[in-house]
Amino acid sequence: MVWLEPVTLEGPHGRLEPLAHTHYDGLVEAVKDGDLWDLWYTSVPEPEKMTAEIDRRLGLQAAGSMLPFTVKQPDGAIAGMTTYMNVDAAHKRVEIGSTWYRKAVQRTPLNTQCKLLLLQHAFEKLNCIAVEFRTHFFNQQSRAAIARLGAKQDGILRNHQVAPNGTLRDTVVFSIIASEWPTVKTHLTYQLERGREGRMPR
Questions:
Q1: What percent of the chain has pLDDT over 90?
Q2: Structure confidence at residue 1 as a pLDDT band (50, 70, 90)
Q3: Which domain holds residue 163?
């Protein structure tokens, strides 16, 4: 039995659907909102590379190491992408990452809703023992957003990767463990009920 299978997750502020090639046009439109690929410390696909990015993520899904989603707004418009990645079925761990959202939905409840849905599925359906988040050391917006979710910083992997531009990436690692989930769930639910703004981890 496959541990991690495609699933649709939905809440009042957003919907996560299994990534598909039929989402191509909406994803290209979304990524152009804010020229998201211009941030040097992120890995957001350029419009002309969207097909290759969809293929890459679906290939990793076929290999069992990723479960990619298309993020949709409540009105059905495509807002971005996110994934379960670095899947470790044997130890029931996943990372939530490779996330980007169009500029128009940043600082809205969409990200908080998506993280709540992904975390709830991970802990309550998949019985994960831990969920990780990773981001570039220089991505201060992402680091702050991950901390606001209730994740705790585990450490920094120095010279973790070589970026496409040749620079060396220090990766900051955060996690939420199973025993913390009830409190984190209460925190995120409270934020959504209060209508507080969410920002994007990546």
A1: 82
A2: low
A3: 9-194
Mean pLDDT of 107-115: 93
Q: Residue 65 has what pLDDT?
A: 95
CB 66 within 8 A of CB 81: no
> Strand runs (DSSP E) across 115-165, as ranges?
130-136, 152-162
With respect to residue 4, please indicate whether it lies within any of the assigned structural domains. no
**pLDDT greater than 70 at residue 198:** no
The single residue listed with the structure tokens 């994007």 is 200
As a whole number of angstroms, the distance between CA 86 and CA 104 comes to 29
142's CB contacts (< 8 A; 6+ apart) are 135, 136, 200, 201, 202
Q: Would you say residue 201 lies in a domain?
A: no
> Could you tell me the pLDDT band of residue 36, with boundaries at 50, 70 and 90?
confident
Do the domain assignments include residue 3?
Answer: no
Q: What is the domain-level CATH number for residue 53? A: 3.40.630.30
Domain count, the chain: 1
**What does DSSP say about strands 66-72 and 14-18: parallel, antiparallel, or unpaired?**
antiparallel
User: Which long-range contacts does 54-63 make (Cβ < 8 Å, 24+ apart)?
Assistant: 54/19, 54/21, 54/23, 54/24, 54/27, 57/19, 57/81, 57/83, 57/98, 58/19, 58/21, 60/85, 61/6, 61/19
Structure tokens at 170: 């220090």
**Would residue 82 count as lying in a domain?**
yes
Predicted confidence at residue 38, as pLDDT, reads 72
